[in-house]
Amino acid sequence: MSNNWEMVIGLEVHAQLKTTSKLFSSSPNLFGSEPNENVNFIDSGMPGMLPVLNWACIEKAIKTGFALNFTINKHSVFERKNYFYPDLPQGYQISQFEFPILSEGYLDIDQPDGSTKKIRIERAHLEQDAGKSIHDIDPKFSFIDLNRVGTPLLEIVSYPDLSSAEDVVNYMSSLRQTLMYIDVCDGNMQEGSLRADVNLSVRKPGGELGTRCEIKNLNSFKFIRQAIEFEFQRQIEVLEAGESVEQNTMLFDTNTGETRPMRSKEFSHDYRYFPDPDLLPVNLTDEQINQIKPSMEELPHEKMNRYINEYKIDKDISKIIIAEKENTVLFEQMINESDVAPKNIASCLVGDIFAFIKEKNTEVLSLLEFTKDITDLLKLISEDVISNKAGKEILPQVLEGKGKPNELVKKMGLEQVSDTSELEKIIDEALVGEEENIAKFQGGSDRVLGYFVGKCLKSTKGKGNPKLINKILLEKLKIINGKSLIFENCDKINDK
Amino acid sequence: MSDIDIKRISYLAKLKLPSEKEEFYSQSLEDIIQWVDNLKKIDTSNVKPLHNVTEATVSIRNDNIEKNNTPEDVLKNSPERAQNFFKVPKVVE
Amino acid sequence: MPKRQPISSLVNSLKEKKISVHELFDQFHKVAKENKNNSYNLVLDPDYQKSNIEASQERYSAGTNLPLDGIPLGIKDLFCTKGITTTASSKILSNFIPQYESFVTQQLLNDGAIFIGKNNCDEFAMGSSNETSHFGPVVNPWQNKNNPSEKLVPGGSSGGSAAAVAEGSCVASMGTDTGGSIRQPASLCGLVGLKPTFGSCSRWGIVAFASSLDQAGPITNCVEDAAYILNSISKHDFNDSTSSNYQRDDYIKDIDKKLDHKIKIGIPSDYLKNVTPEITAQIENTKKSLAGHDIEFIDVAFETTDYALSTYYIIAPAEASSNLARYDGIRYGVREEGSNLDDIYLNSRTSGFGDEVTRRILIGTYVLSAGYYDAYYRQAQKVRRLIKDDFQRVFQEVDFILTPTTPNEAFKIGEKLDPIAMYMNDVFTVPTSLAGLPGISLPSGLSSNGLPLGVQIIGNYFEEKKLLQLSNLIEKELSFNE
Lengths: 496, 93, 482
Known about the structure:
Radius of gyration of chain B: 23 Å
Number of domains of chain A: 3
Order of helices and strands of chain B: HHEHEE
Structural class of chain B: alpha+beta
Oligomer: heterotrimer
Structural class of chain A: alpha+beta
Number of helices of chain B: 3
Distance between the termini of chain B: 36 Å
Shape of chain A: elongated
Low-confidence stretches of chain A: 487-496
Largest sheet of chain B: 2 strands, antiparallel
Helix content of chain B: 25-40%
Shape of chain B: flat
Mean pLDDT of chain B: 92
Radius of gyration of chain A: 32 Å
Number of helices of chain A: 16
Strand order of the largest sheet of chain A: 3-7-8-11-1-12-13-14-15
Helix content of chain A: 25-40%
Strand content of chain B: 5-15%
Strand content of chain A: 15-25%
């Protein structure tokens, strides 16, 4: 059925800004505190209280402007959006309307076929978050916690350039990644740091735009996907039944996976926006805007290009690392602290370290204190002090902080034998009675070399340096001037 | 009668005008709107709105926390509370 | 009315121990407690103020007294006072006890002033006669000599503040002025009322009416007292984003200084178009009193005066409709019960606000609503700029502007029922408010009914010092002529 229809989606993303204090008050911007702990007289809308703008919010908006290719407006105005709700103490939300701080940006998202799609962003503006009403403690009452009141939000409004749930998820995750990279938002969707309103309509391919419905407040990729799929089918069913879609604000029920219209209002909303007379317009100078540029963190795609070009790391591995900003923090700290080849660090990170993180369910950033130990360990491997295999054995101990690599090597008896004379002795012993295999080797069978290396490693209990063993073996097995060295050696052994 | 929809205006303002007073306010509003209507005579096509006579501010905060009150100070005047929450009849969304 | 002692002489008496702080407080408290003109919503008794009185007395004894030490002041019930009920003369806030002190009252406390009580006012400062208070009208202490039994309005909205000073229950009082709410009652009660430049005195902690217009200021017996209070309250406040960081003057210093150069005073003919001869006479009196000085009077004309009231009665209600949205019975104030949340909102707000406040919320909601915003609100904001520009044009020619303060003397309580007739009271004060300029009302004479009338002097932005110097001169010359 849905084959004949396509969806047209625009997204309004609310990103809570990662600041110490609120947008217009000096209360802490903190999640998870005791009820009404982070509330002052401004937040609670007491008579005569006045807002004072937090400069950090302007800075974060400007950074977002640079990252998402926005025009950064030198003149922006805070306005009041008037409506009544118990978690809105002032009776209005301070937001930006006619003059937002950012306009006309875009974000490129990856498509399944490897190409990119440009998603245009109409605007982004600063506004206050509302408090929280808690409905599930008591059957008759709601409880109001104003801690979240006044938390700075950047609302990022895309054009309806998205045409599938996949697109939306890609856009949202790319947006999240970018905002986290530039330290604007912590990206924690579970705590509501990043939430989306989805505007969805359906149409026949190439046909006119349909009536849209807005699904409010989705805070996980799973819910976004579910809500879009349900709403898409719902609208198709309405249209195929010959009815028309009613423009509505929808709520998504996370239990049933369904969307339903919000309680219909007697009259439509009229927010009566007007410039907040308690605040004056924000007028920025070029200097103020450009001052922020040098402090801009590297963006995900910039980082990836650097990893590929400067560190010579494979694109696929680079992509894995840059997926989360914290990976890159860990990675770059390891690179900066050592002279181990970035390539080796990268493969250890996406291999053994990620496996460890997954298995132990630890935070990536909690490993920051062990980066020196990790690179020391990698150095021991590259310098042939221990084998790769021994390294794998030691790594989890290092990541759990159980000791320094060289101590662990000693303690676990994993030091590699790289003493040439010692290895020669072992190899000579291993070749005793192997005339048949030696002959095979000399007859052209390479496989025998592996057999010999294995045998030697076994007699060193795995601690022999495989590279060195390989080298010495080859030397010994090589025929010089038509005469096999090995027999000389054998003779010597036999002589003893 | 005017085009002033007193029911809608009072709905937006969260006021429930008693029916016997609706006419009173409606008339009053009408008179005042008519009285201020003389502004329409002025050509302001090239004038920028003036929202505030102070047009620039020095009040822009650094991102620091200041705590000068307890939750109790904020809740002290509340008509109804449950521990440190404000309490209201159930909100239906 | 008897001549009252100015703050400077009271401070001297206290210094010289001719009177104690306690005795001074008692003297005013006794009158306030009677509250015969209903000028107080709350009177603080000597016990409540005991520690403040004692601390003040100690400073006098130690010779470390502060500029306003021990001076009993009345405070309009629109200023939030920590631990003291602050109602804005509204039912909806009738039980509200702020846990914070407004910036302005804090400055007064810092300078040693002692509060007598909270002055009655129009509900949320919306009114021009102090008849909209939930706690009943304030009565003007002045009487019509031809009809002494009539109860007259004191003007509004700072009517209680004006009546309190006039009745002698405080030395001076604090008012707020949005469209004339300090100057108009000062005029009707025969007092000095100063509205400073917008941005001079912080609005932090003052119950908001119209944020782009509200400004605190003193109502006093004399110009010098106004300078004393202004010295205390005019300070930059970082917490009010509209507060100016302009370098303030010492307003007392040189207040008696003779004019050292010729000044020009403009008299706007358009203000005098439709006024009674009695009102015109106030301007003439003032002119005459200054005859001996190097002052040139110039006829000026504004182009926007006819539009000021309309502009004001769009902008002020628009801002008020939003400023008063926070009064909902949820977090503070009087909650009316209801079966659901919406009912609580509707019942609390409907029963909590009086008629005039309701009317203004409705006007404000209407002019901001979709379809009307451009025609009314935006147009008013544009005309507001024209009004400001109009003043700046006139100020290129003159140093000050002289106008009547009000178009009439104090009228009878209950006389003006029509809201528009009431709004017309603000015709001379509103333009100054829209432009954000400083204006002062000075007593200029008595009407044929023996009631006080006043003139308004308007200065340019932040020229309060010069404005007070000129006002001081006019005050002296007028009293000399009496």
